[in-house]
């Protein structure tokens, strides 16, 4: 897989592949419980229009490639 192919993966599809399901969708925002820690309320937001994610617990906003890299390191 090259960089462009990785960028073309939708974040919601990538998360679904790991078994993460959205808690709620509001407009272009889809909210999940963070895949990086245990939590009771959803604090991980995916912007469907920009294909960016923001984790309010980590105060991080990045693209899919960064998420894939973090996921590989975490697992």
Automatic annotation (TrEMBL):
This is DNA primase. InterPro entries: DNA_primase_Znf_CHC2 (IPR036977). GO terms for molecular function: DNA binding; zinc ion binding. One of its GO terms (biological process) is DNA replication. It comes from the Bacteria. It comes from Parabacteroides merdae.
């Amino acid at each position: 897989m090259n960089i462009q192919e990785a960028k073309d993966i939708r974040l919601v599809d990538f998360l679904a592949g790991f078994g993460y399901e959205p808690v709620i969708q509001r407009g272009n925002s889809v909210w999940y419980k963070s895949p990086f820690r245990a939590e009771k309320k959803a604090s991980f937001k995916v912007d469907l229009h920009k294909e960016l994610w923001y984790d309010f617990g980590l105060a991080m906003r990045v693209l899919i490639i960064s998420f894939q890299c973090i996921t590989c390191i975490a697992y």
